[in-house]
Amino acid sequence: MTMGKPRTRRVLVTHNSIAPSAVALLNAHDIDVFFSPPYDASEVVAARMAELQPDALMVRQGRIDASVIGASSRLKVIVKHGVGVDNVDLEAAAALDIPVLRSLGSNALAVAEHAVSLMLALLKQFPALDTAVKGGQWPKPSFIGRDIAGARLGLIGFGAIGRETARLAVALGMDVTVYDPHAAGEIAAAGLAVADNVEALVSDVDIVSLHCPLTRETRNIVDAGLIERMGPQTLIVNTARGGLIDEAALAAALADGRIAGAGLDSFAAEPPSPDGPLWAAPNLIVTPHVGGVTKGSAITMAETAARHIISVLDGNPPDARSLALPATLAA
Question: What positions does the domain D-isomer specific 2-hydroxyacid dehydrogenase NAD-binding occupy (predicted)?
Fold first, then answer.
């Protein structure tokens, strides 16, 4: 908690910290800030909520279920420090008439940079080459690399992150095609090719990169059937949500050489199990869901979330564009 005279309103953050500028912004609007360690069990967070009775909840990490949401009778708003809300029980929040807001666009460039970095590392086979040279091998005589310029990139999703990823990819000389049934006009306006369906998209690209929310419709969108439509040169990159990919099917395809590689920044369960099927797969690069966590984006996410909280607690209606609705998003 911020030291000083107690304020009349409280927010609980499911992490050890947020950007100091966001704390100062909240304090300046009569809101004290409290913290709950990341990935604490729901019952631990619920107990902390019951103890503090906060007016707002800022979600960074951990699962926010009905027990957490119902533990504070003063709770008026839940805000995600980021964009994805699959760790929040939206239906439980809606049942108590508590809006859930996303910090839209706050980390779009950071995630796009991470996605493109994974693409480049996979295209250039950095992990395998690094391991070979450190192991005393010198694969230069037999190595043939892949080009970035002219690589065919297929994006699933054209929200803020998808748009930034496309912009960076085009600057590198990639040919970009996008599948997003909700943004065909925006894709065409950006001068990019539009795929009519996801099956057509993945059958004719070198890289498939995921940039859509996890919904009832998109859960396991990359399953065994879709992977079968990809060529052996295909790379899969996921900096969105782990539930978009059937991880067992992906592990099997990597093991069998049916696709060329994968770069993952998110997983179906986080932290993932250390004995899961993916870890034995070749040509796999993984990072711990940190694509959106840069110095700049962390400040922007926290400040955006803080402004949402201040607005709602001051009696304003929640920002309609930022609302996460149970009808469209999957908890």
Answer: 116-291
